[in-house]
Structures are given as structure tokens and as C-alpha cells.
Amino acid sequence: MSGPPLPRFVPNPDRPVYGETPRPEWLKVRLVDNEDTRGILDLVRRKHLNTVCQEAQCPNIFECWGRERTATFMLMGDVCTRRCGFCAVTQGIGRPLDPEEPRHVAEAVKELGVRHAVVTSVNRDELPDGGAAHFAATIGAIRAANPGVTVEVLIPDFLGSEAALRTVLEAAPEVLNHNTETVARLYRRVRPDAIYARSLELLARAAAWRDGSAPAMRVKSGLMVGLGEELDEVLATMRDLRAAGTDTLTVGQYLQPHARRLPVERWWTPEEFARLRDEGRAMGFAVVEAGPLVRSSYHARAALGAAGGGDAAAPR
Questions:
Q1: pLDDT tens track for 71-112
Q2: What backbone phi and psi angles, to 5 degrees, belong to 174?
Q3: Number of neighbours of residue 100 by Cβ within 10 angstroms
Q4: Which of 144, 183, 190, 219 is buried most, with the most CB atoms less than 10 Å from its CB?
Q5: What sign results for the dihedral spanned by CA atoms 289, 294, 295, 300?
Q6: Which residue from 58, 56, 94 is spatially nearest to 77, judged by alpha carbons?
Q7: How far is CA 145 from CA 48, 106, 176, 210, in A?
Q8: CB within 8 A of 269, min separation 6: which ones?
Q9: Separation CA 218–CA 207 (nearest Å)
């Protein structure tokens, strides 16, 4: 088949990498090489956009691009100011923001024909608002070009700025997502530039905004496992998230992106993920997506509908 090459990340779960133990059967990923996959790659290139699908080396890239025809757009470049031990994104100081990026994302959403747009970003701690206004502009541009499309944003912590968070909330996304990523004990190793309590505070502020001003908005967070955490620590973190007002949760297996990132400590089994899902539902989460290949935007549109925040059954 002619066309642009496949995304540079091609999952190969059959082959151990960087000295890790062999990956289990349940982490196998089926490669999908079709016109949809190549079409999205071509679209991303033409609009000069970045996707977290590529930059974070998501194992679901072929499922989403090839079958669901969706992509998670990553704002503000492909260089992050933080030094997270798990992330494949390049670390350093990013280039100036592209004022045309919100419009380009909106055009890509329209061309793809999706009904639920997911937008995230690198951390840009050097910016006065951490890029909050850029998020808000992108939400507005998507809405202007795509009436009826719902928008999910996966935001950084903006260094705890309540004003920056308010800027995003006032743009009225249907889903406000901020990943906690791991348990409190591992933050210094896994997220050295983040603070566990600060992430919980952001989620609690978002939940308070939802309860007072936007009852249909969903507040979402995500966790990785396999970095050395214990089951009771994961459950305690889930309880913290629920107490903060989070109503949607994702839990997935960490995969080491390259040799300079943290190794996988353990492969969690499908049965263990099922237990986390059941425990989360018992805690009162409206939606819990838990599984080896689950990521923040996994089945995002369906999850929004299941949580009561959108029409997941509407055709694309």
C-alpha cells in the first residue's frame, strides 16, 4: 500500500526490551496498517500537529487510528519542561507557542469527523499560565468549527495555579482530566517535578467547579501500575481521587518507552485489573477503565456517555 510510512512507534510486545522480563500474552497488540491509519498520519503532518499517540508511544495507536479513527492532540510542541521518569516525550525548553495551532486542531477534528475531541499538552512551566489560555483557545476553536462536538482536555497541574485552572474551566470542556499517574510514595522517583497533594487539589477544585457551575462536566484522572506500587497503595490512591470528587478513572500497565526511563517492576494481570475496576465502582466512580493497555484517552467518548456527560451512541 502506498502512502506515508507508519508512525515511528510500532509496538512489539513479543520482544523484551531494555532488559525487562518477557511481556505476557495479554499485552500483545495487533498492528493495523490501512487507509485510516495512514490518513490520520498524513493529516497530522499537513496540519503540523503533534499527537500523544506518537509522542507517548501509546500501545493503542493502531486501534484508535486504524479502527476508531481518533487521535489525541498534544498542544504546545513536543518538548516538555519536566523530567518524569516514565515519559517518552523529549525533555527541555519548548519553542514559542504557535497561535495557529488551535485552529489547526479544530480543522483536524472536523476532517476526522469525530464527535469527541481529546486534547492534551506537554508541560510548559516557563509560561506564565502554563499554557492554560492556549487550552482555552483550542476548546473555543474546536467548538466554533465543530458544533455538537464534545471536548476532553488532559491538563498539566499548572504549578498549582488556581487562575490557570479557572481559565480552562471557563472554556467549558465536557471532561477535565488530570493524571495522578502513580501513588504518593513513588512521586519523587516517578514524577520528581510534581506534587501528589497538588494534583489532588487540582482535581478537587475542578470538582468544586463542576458542582457549582457545570454539573454535566466530568472530572477524570488516570494511574499507571507496574512501577513498584503495592495493591493497597493503589486502592488508597483511588480513594483519595474519589474523595477529591473525581468521577472517572483509568488504570493501565506502565510500559518502559526507552532505556533511559524507569524499568517495569511488575506486570499486573488482567484479573488484578478486574479487581481494581470492581473496587473503583464500589468506591463510587461513575466509570472505571482498568486493563493492561488502558490509557488516559482509552474509549474516552464511550466513557463520557457512560458517565452521563455526553451522547456516546451518536454516529461519527
A1: 678 899 889 999 888 787 788 988 999 999 999 999 988 888
A2: -70, -30
A3: 12
A4: 219
A5: negative
A6: 94
A7: 18, 6, 21, 25
A8: 24, 26
A9: 8
User: For residue 22, what is the DSSP state?
Assistant: P
The answer to whether the beta carbons of residues 53 and 61 sit under 8 Å apart is yes
**Relative orientation angle of helices 35-46 and 101-112, to the nearest 10 degrees:** 160
Angle (CA) 18 14 258, round 5°: 25
- Cell numbers of 247, please? 468521577
**All cell numbers assigned to 271:** 484479573
pLDDT for 34-71, tens place per residue? Answer: 566 566 666 656 765 555 544 445 555 555 544 554 56
Could you tell me how many residues make up the chain? Answer: 316
- Please classify residue 297 by burial: count the beta carbons closer than 10 Å to its beta carbon, then call 0-12 exposed, 13-18 middle and 19+ buried: buried
